[in-house]
């Protein structure tokens, strides 16, 4: 069976996230425009710095619940890394779509809005009411990817 475009990009982002070094959850992000991949990202420490898996993670040590105190972790989120990669390489992502393996947190949601990303297609849920509200207010389309579902990018 030939994958739909959404299935195709979701399969790729599942491979991207395997590079993650987060102790908690591996997350991948893929920025796409006109069916072309513009940038990829996974969560982990800044380039060249020791990762949480080597030096430990304070969020893990303090048992911080999911979705809270992001600043305690040395890692960047997958969506942030994808946006930064585009900036670093001088790639225009205005008007693009972002595929994520996990629903974006509120920090990433704000960055997605200002990066000009128009649509979020995510797989795993992540309870963050504030990021839902940010997306709603900004008029960003947010779609949950359904396995074997009808991809709407034809
Ligand atoms: Zn960490
Ligand atoms: Zn995030």
TrEMBL record:
<feature type="binding site">
    <location>
        <position position="105"/>
    </location>
    <ligand>
        <name>Zn(2+)</name>
    </ligand>
</feature>
<dbReference type="InterPro" id="IPR015517">
    <property type="entry name" value="dCMP_deaminase-rel"/>
</dbReference>
<dbReference type="GO" id="GO:0008270">
    <property type="term" value="F:zinc ion binding"/>
</dbReference>
<dbReference type="InterPro" id="IPR035105">
    <property type="entry name" value="Deoxycytidylate_deaminase_dom"/>
</dbReference>
<dbReference type="InterPro" id="IPR016193">
    <property type="entry name" value="Cytidine_deaminase-like"/>
</dbReference>
<dbReference type="GO" id="GO:0004132">
    <property type="term" value="F:dCMP deaminase activity"/>
</dbReference>
<feature type="binding site">
    <location>
        <position position="108"/>
    </location>
    <ligand>
        <name>Zn(2+)</name>
    </ligand>
</feature>
<dbReference type="InterPro" id="IPR016192">
    <property type="entry name" value="APOBEC/CMP_deaminase_Zn-bd"/>
</dbReference>
<keyword id="KW-0479">Metal-binding</keyword>
<dbReference type="InterPro" id="IPR002125">
    <property type="entry name" value="CMP_dCMP_dom"/>
</dbReference>
<protein>
    <submittedName>
        <fullName>CMP/dCMP deaminase zinc-binding protein</fullName>
    </submittedName>
</protein>
<dbReference type="InterPro" id="IPR016473">
    <property type="entry name" value="dCMP_deaminase"/>
</dbReference>
<feature type="domain" description="CMP/dCMP-type deaminase">
    <location>
        <begin position="4"/>
        <end position="138"/>
    </location>
</feature>
<feature type="binding site">
    <location>
        <position position="77"/>
    </location>
    <ligand>
        <name>Zn(2+)</name>
    </ligand>
</feature>
<dbReference type="GO" id="GO:0006220">
    <property type="term" value="P:pyrimidine nucleotide metabolic process"/>
</dbReference>
<dbReference type="Pfam" id="PF00383">
    <property type="entry name" value="dCMP_cyt_deam_1"/>
</dbReference>
<comment type="similarity">
    <text>Belongs to the cytidine and deoxycytidylate deaminase family.</text>
</comment>
<feature type="active site" description="Proton donor">
    <location>
        <position position="79"/>
    </location>
</feature>
<keyword id="KW-0862">Zinc</keyword>
<dbReference type="GO" id="GO:0005737">
    <property type="term" value="C:cytoplasm"/>
</dbReference>
<keyword id="KW-0378">Hydrolase</keyword>
